[in-house]
Design brief:
Elements (H helix, E strand, L loop, with lengths): L1 H13 L7 H19 L3 H4 L14 H5 L5 H4 L9 H22 L1 H19 L10 H14 L4 E4 L3 E4 H18 L2 H10 L1 H34 L22 E3 L8 E3 L15
Antiparallel strand pairs: 1-2, 3-4
Length: 281
């Protein structure tokens, strides 16, 4: 496959620049940012609104980047998902679990490339609405999409009790992306679409093959149903009781040699019927 050969060449050329354990590095960075922002936002001047929260200086806002705040290109990647410690811990664990699995499955370089493509697409899309802030929420969700595509039957235990197949979580993510595209503002539309570019770049060939296979399967099913529709409802029917070989597949049917025409009878009436002399009778 052309795409796989291209990936191999890229890995041979740039593989030495790959960052190992990238998922762990992102999680640790987000934990540090969460601790620092929580502490600094507790200051009275921040709580009173006199000073903006620390995280406000970390979002990717293209207008601010053009004014010289270039660090935003990197810092939006290490923003924690929320300020709720319980949700964040669950998120960080799942992100580390799925990201590390992908890193082992693909190798450091291909996993780095997957996130890099998503990052570049998200950063580029942000400039379509330069006054709005771009976040890493959709980008990190594509790690779940890739993991679910490769491990659809993996189960996540909510509260360590309720098992939920990861493929259902992926469908919720896709629903969120579609909803953002349909009802979100232009900034959200651009960010949502850009965030899944890496998924389609990496899994597009497989998706296309799945669509083609689905079409072939549907065509085969339609042909089979058409053949079944052309088949007779039954092959044998008793002229006395009306039972058919479809009603009772174990019943034995015979044609009477003394009746005029082709008169079929079940085993119960083969020797217990009135012989017909008129085929139409």
């Amino acid at each position: 496959m052309i795409w796989m050969r291209l990936l191999t060449r890229l890995e041979q050329t740039f593989g030495r620049f790959a960052v190992p354990h990238l998922t762990l590095a992102l999680v640790i960075s987000q934990v540090v940012v969460y601790v620092v922002t929580t502490g600094m936002n507790a200051r009275p001047e921040v709580r009173n609104g006199a000073v903006e929260p620390v995280e406000a200086r970390l979002y990717l806002i293209p207008d601010k980047v053009l004014e010289g705040e270039v660090w935003r290109f990197a810092t939006f990647l290490i923003l924690p998902p929320t300020m709720n410690i319980v949700f964040n811990c669950i998120f960080w664990y799942l992100f580390w679990l799925m990201g590390s699995t992908l890193e082992i499955y693909w190798g450091h370089f291909r996993y780095n490339l997957y996130l890099l493509v998503g990052y570049l697409a998200t950063a580029g899309a942000a400039f379509f609405t330069p006054e709005h802030a771009a976040t890493n929420v959709f980008l990190e969700s594509t790690v779940l999409l890739a993991f679910a595509w490769l491990n659809p039957e993996f189960r996540v235990y909510v509260y360590f009790i309720f098992p939920i197949p990861i493929k259902w979580s992926a469908r919720l993510v896709w629903a969120g992306v579609i909803l953002a595209v349909l009802v979100g503002d232009w900034s959200m539309k651009a960010t949502a679409l850009a965030s899944v570019v890496n998924f389609f770049v990496f899994f597009g060939p497989e998706l296309w093959e799945a669509v083609r296979y689905g079409r072939r399967r549907m065509a085969a099913q339609a042909a089979r149903f058409a053949d079944e529709g052309r088949r007779p409802a039954y092959y044998h029917k008793c002229m006395v009781c009306g039972i058919t070989d479809q009603i009772n597949r174990k019943m034995d049917f015979r044609y009477c040699s003394k009746c005029a025409g082709e008169c079929c009878y079940c085993a119960d009436h083969l020797k217990n019927h009135e012989h017909k002399t008129n085929p139409a009778a």
